[in-house]
Amino acid sequence: MAHHTDRPIDADVLIVGAGPTGLALALDLARRGIPARLVERGTELFPGSRGKGLQPRTLEVLDDFGVLAEIRAVAGRYPPNLFWKDGEPQGTSRVYDETLKPCEAEPYPSTLMLPQWRTQQVLHGRLRELGGAVDFGRELVGLRQDADEVTAEFAQGVPVRARYLVAADGGRSTVRRLLGIAMTGQTVDPAPMLVADVTVTGLDRDHWHVFPPPGAGALDAGTAHAGPGIGLLALCPLPGGEQYQLVARFPEGTWPDPSIEGIRRLVADRTHLSATDVTDVRWASEFRPRAALADRFRAGRVLLAGDAAHVHSPAGAQGLNTSIQDAYNLGWKLGAVLAGRAADPLLDTYEQERRPTAARMLELSTQVHRGEVRRGRATQQLDLGYRESPLAVETRTRLAPHVLRAGDRAPDGRRGGIRLFDAFRGPHWTLLAVGTRAHVPADAFAGAGVRMLDIPDHEAYGTGVFLVRPDGYVGWAGVTARGITDYAARVGALGR
Fold it and tell me: What is the DSSP letter of 275?
């Protein structure tokens, strides 16, 4: 690729923001051998619990990244809600509707809870194992781009030149502002809210403790909307320590006090606990719940991901999960383009696939926030897919409605001593022949790094030939392998 200067570029990819999105993308690129530069304005990783829910589909992504065992060792299940009134417990309810037990196709059906800071710590550790690092204390102040590269300017240090830049710098994204990309959205709840990580005494750690406002009926702790007045206060025990996540809603026209003194007064006013029962505040933030979607996810050589592209209500635990899956979608595409296996327009499919998905998840999280929908199958993200994507090529005809199609998530399973998720794990494509002796052109895939599997019948797949993308979705499906090499060449599954 030609450049307008003789000075070599500094990185193939510059990632701005070391939150869950930036860390996941840097990790995914590192395992592909892509030189990425990850910069973070802060002096350390984010210290709070904000995005604490890990949905089943995200657990599958973390399995692919090789960190699921570490995550599961420290994460916990969501505890039941325990409602309080006048210092007396009033009864319990489940946070989530009943979920399916683990099955062959879906091995991780339960949503897990882990503070965001701990999830980031695990991703950071894996990134370092792969030779990556975070460049802290780097505040972006300007950028410019041309047909060949992006140049980012920082308040500290020299500019960085990269082939592509990914904005993973949060809901108040500097990159998005510099690009002039608007966000379209709505206020989910006009009342301000406070979220904080606190240490308290006097409460058990087996329940999510909910303190509704005076006169309110039973409420779902996950539904931030609590009717008129001061709103609810909830304290959820966080796994892996002694802290609770505090969430409180305030009247319109007021603003929370995030200081330890303010939080102590809040707890004393709205619960049967005393101010002195709050012994520590690790982190606190005030916000007004909103839902917003960037008008576009790509501008030239700059791509938006995570909260820089979509901002969610915390209800329903969709924001962090949608963000990590943005990175998972984008990583293999950047890898294919940078390696010369696919043309630049492949990156256009990132917006084509992820923007509609983010829009659906924004609508869902808003409905959960307002109490219109309960957490359940929809919030798990296992049914999300890309059937309408230009990368989904389904060559079979007259399929029954329930049959797996191109664009769908590729299920797990065990056949002939092989676990499919183990076979999929890594940055490669997988060519899967299920219950058929259809001729697969092995020579065409020689040296391409595509793993080829031939397994007996599998109920979740039916019978046929499937080319599974590096992010675990079926890209191409057919009764035979006819036409598969043309598709593979277009999407970068074949060698140079």
Answer: G
Calculate the alpha carbon distances from 309 to 81, 183, 225, 358, 453 in Å: 32, 8, 24, 8, 37
Where do we find the tokens 């065409």?
444
pLDDT in tens, 50-108: 999 999 999 999 999 999 999 999 999 999 999 999 999 999 988 766 556 888 999 99
**446 vs 320: CA distance, rounded Å:** 38
Q: How far apart are CA 448 and CA 436, in angstroms?
A: 23
Structure tokens at 426: 């890594």
Q: What is the CATH number of domain 393-491?
A: 3.40.30.120
Of 119, 131, 148, whose CA–CA distance to 319 is shortest? Answer: 119
Say yes or no: domain 193-288 is CATH 3.30.70.2450: yes
CB distance 290 to 313 below 8 Å: yes
Q: What is the enclosing helix (H) or strand (E) of 118?
A: helix 116-129
Do the first three CATH levels of 193-288 and 393-491 match, i.e. the same topology? no
Measured CA to CA, the distance from residue 354 to residue 427 in angstroms comes to 19
Residues 355/293, Cβ–Cβ less than 8 Å: yes
Structure token pair of residue 358 = 């983010």
Sign of CA dihedral 64, 65, 66, 70: negative
pTM: 0.94
Helix-, strand-, coil-residue percentages of the chain, each rounded to 5: 25, 25, 45
Task: Locate the domains of the chain by residue range.
Answer: 11-45+53-75+114-184+291-380, 193-288, 393-491
Domain 11-45+53-75+114-184+291-380 has CATH 3.30.379.10: no
Contact 114, 54 (CB under 8 A): yes
